[in-house]
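Customer escalation, tier 2.

The customer says the design service returned an amino acid string that "doesn't look like it belongs to this structure." They asked us to rerun it and document both sides in this ticket. The original structure tokens are below, unchanged.
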């Protein structure tokens, strides 16, 4: 059953007319949330506490999506389907409630299939294991005639990940890249859920970029090829690049039993390609491209960085032409596509140093992005790599080390993995060894507690820093730019109103007495429920929680612990809520506990700190309990108060007021 959507919009599957998205800001979920809301669905969502104050949460709220911070059974209403991010695992109160109420529980990929099935001949899919983010975003851009929507994992630069319009929808079917190493199916995947029947979708077109997986998961080769074949047999138009062996194998499979009436378009440099890339030449602002389709040549300039991204856009152009789009319109739109957010995208420049971001994971992708970045600067290239996945980083250690040869300096972040723990050697050692062999000693470094500080010591005017990764690396770029913009970190406040205290006083000068009272309550470690019970200002726990969220947004603090550090440094909080011996005799803290405290003061989430330390969650929990014992406190907020007053952490305070449009 479908629900009537806003006029002119593709029909909305009845199963998705009211949904709750678990992990609504995770990769791929934001695009789905935006499309559903635009199509008329009633959308709610939840995010981990670490995402509190994140720009993505605010953006979804502006799109009309009610997002709750933290996972709580009360967040899931009884009238909706639960759609969850593929990385959700373990005990989960919202999924427990969904099961108890016998509500449908859908993974993101099943929800996307439902959208495609309902859209029918208006659905255009992009699939594969490499380059799909660029190809899908480019195709959505090329088909954006005001009557085309899209659901993307990663948006085009300056665009959104999801948009509902017209009867046509472009869907990126690539699985979430952040969960390929997640624990085996368990928890919610094995729970009984009401039977949900989905129609088999018949797509207007499918662009399949690649189907091959990589070691050590050899079985993924066949599974990926089988999945691609199933998709290929359900589409009227099939577009296949010829530069990937896996798509060549797929074409051979399909040739054994052709799909009646299907139009197959091949894209590549071979003379027999349906859409032949005749020229692809780098210029100062992109790639001058000539594409021949049906004996007609089309010339255009692609303002993207990296030949591999330019080829992906060419595949999207071929798909748009095969769908019957006017060539001149396609060419004009292609010239306006500036790439994908985070895919060799320049973040900004500070002190003459440019910071660029890359989402590359595979060694070939890393090498291609490093080579492309090398062409963007006449200065030094500093590559900062966050390897992706323990198993794959270990299997590709030599190739990853070799992929960094084009950089002048290399910094290695801890491996990004969702695994709580692992046995065996750290693959970072093998990557480091290979990189040293290729680059030489003195040019390869492990990052310590403050990667941005290390990078700041390596760069000079005219240099480019390429940050590669999809985990903690995503947050390093903004932190590095902030560091470059304020090269001299402030010191701990001295008695009296010194420069640093004056700076934060300026930042917090618009706080009302009520906000100051709330900040003191937060620093005391009181929960929203405690605050509501002990104050006549807030009528409910929800009201107190919203007030805390507003105060965090108002000050720019990422979480309660950072706000506590700022408030203590600014002398809004002058003492812990109870006496502690740590103030009279400051303890000597182990380095890892010091890292945790400093990370919180800098605004890092506990999960980011765990990844930086490269420890499992149970081990991190032990460190945190030890921290509380050392500081003689009951709550983590009180730990921050003691740490600041004792000079155990350095507090970098905001110097500018929060934007005036934020009101109490």
């Amino acid at each position: 059953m479908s629900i009537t959507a806003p006029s002119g919009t593709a029909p909305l599957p009845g199963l998705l007319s009211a949904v709750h998205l678990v992990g609504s800001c995770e990769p791929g979920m934001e695009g789905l949330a935006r499309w559903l809301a635009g199509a008329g669905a009633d959308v709610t969502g939840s995010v981990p506490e670490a995402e509190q104050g994140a720009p993505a949460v605010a953006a979804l709220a502006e799109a009309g999506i009610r997002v709750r911070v933290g996972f709580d059974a009360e967040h899931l209403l009884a009238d909706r389907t639960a759609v969850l991010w593929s990385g959700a695992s373990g005990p989960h109160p919202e999924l427990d409630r969904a099961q108890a109420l016998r509500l449908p529980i859908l993974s993101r990929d099943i929800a996307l299939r439902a959208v495609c099935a309902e859209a029918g001949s208006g659905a255009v899919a992009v699939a594969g294991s490499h380059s799909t983010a660029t190809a899908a975003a480019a195709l959505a851009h090329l088909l954006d005639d005001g009557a085309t929507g899209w659901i993307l994992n990663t948006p085009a630069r300056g665009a959104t990940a999801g948009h509902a319009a017209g009867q046509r929808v472009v869907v990126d079917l690539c699985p979430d890249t952040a969960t390929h190493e997640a624990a085996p199916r368990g928890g919610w995947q094995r729970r009984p859920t009401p039977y949900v029947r989905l129609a088999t979708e018949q797509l207007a077109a499918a662009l399949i970029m690649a189907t091959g997986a990589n070691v050590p998961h050899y079985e993924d080769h066949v599974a990926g090829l089988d999945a691609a074949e199933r998709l290929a047999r359900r589409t009227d138009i099939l577009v296949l690049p010829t530069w990937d062996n896996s798509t060549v194998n797929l074409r051979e499979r399909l040739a054994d039993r052709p799909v009646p009436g299907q139009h197959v378009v091949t894209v590549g440099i071979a003379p027999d390609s349906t859409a032949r890339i005749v020229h692809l030449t780098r210029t100062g602002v992109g790639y001058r491209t000539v594409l021949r389709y049906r004996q007609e040549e089309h010339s255009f300039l692609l303002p993207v960085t990296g030949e591999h991204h330019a080829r992906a856009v060419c595949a999207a152009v071929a798909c748009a032409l095969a769908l019957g789009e006017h060539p001149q319109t396609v060419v004009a739109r292609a010239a306006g596509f500036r790439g994908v957010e985070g895919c060799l995208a320049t973040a900004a420049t500070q002190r003459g140093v440019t910071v660029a971001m890359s989402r590359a994971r595979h060694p070939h992708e890393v090498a291609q992005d490093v080579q492309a970045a090398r062409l963007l600067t006449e200065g030094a290239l500093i590559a900062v790599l966050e390897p992706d996945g323990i198993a794959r980083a270990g299997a590709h250690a030599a190739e990853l080390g070799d992929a960094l040869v084009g950089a002048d300096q290399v910094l290695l972040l801890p491996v990004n993995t969702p695994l709580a723990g692992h046995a065996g050697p750290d693959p970072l050692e093998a990557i480091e060894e290979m990189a040293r062999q290729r680059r030489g000693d003195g040019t390869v470094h492990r990052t310590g507690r403050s990667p941005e500080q290390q990078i700041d010591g390596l760069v000079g005017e005219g240099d480019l820093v390429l940050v590669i990764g999809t985990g903690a690396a995503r947050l390093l770029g903004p932190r590095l730019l902030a560091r470059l913009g304020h090269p001299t970190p402030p010191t701990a406040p001295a008695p009296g109103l010194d420069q640093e205290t004056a700076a934060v006083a300026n930042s917090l000068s618009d706080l009302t007495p009520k906000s100051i009272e709330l900040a003191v309550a937060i620093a005391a470690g009181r929960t929203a429920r405690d605050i509501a019970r002990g104050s006549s200002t807030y009528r409910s726990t929800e009201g107190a929680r919203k007030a805390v969220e507003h105060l965090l947004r108002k000050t720019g603090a990422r979480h309660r612990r950072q706000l506590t550090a700022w408030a203590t440094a600014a002398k809004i909080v002058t003492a812990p809520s109870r006496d502690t011996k740590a103030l009279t005799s400051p303890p000597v803290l182990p380095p890892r506990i010091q890292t945790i405290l400093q990370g919180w003061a800098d605004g890092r989430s506990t999960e980011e700190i765990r990844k930086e330390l490269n420890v499992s969650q149970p081990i991190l929990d032990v460190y945190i309990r030890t921290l509380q014992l050392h500081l003689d406190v009951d709550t983590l907020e009180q730990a921050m108060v003691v740490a600041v007053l004792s000079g155990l952490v350095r507090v970098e305070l905001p110097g500018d007021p929060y934007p005036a449009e934020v009101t109490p």
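Tier 2 assessment: The sequence is consistent with the input. The CA atoms of residues 600 and 661 lie 27 Å apart. The radius of gyration is 26 Å. Sent an explanation to the customer and offered a walkthrough call.
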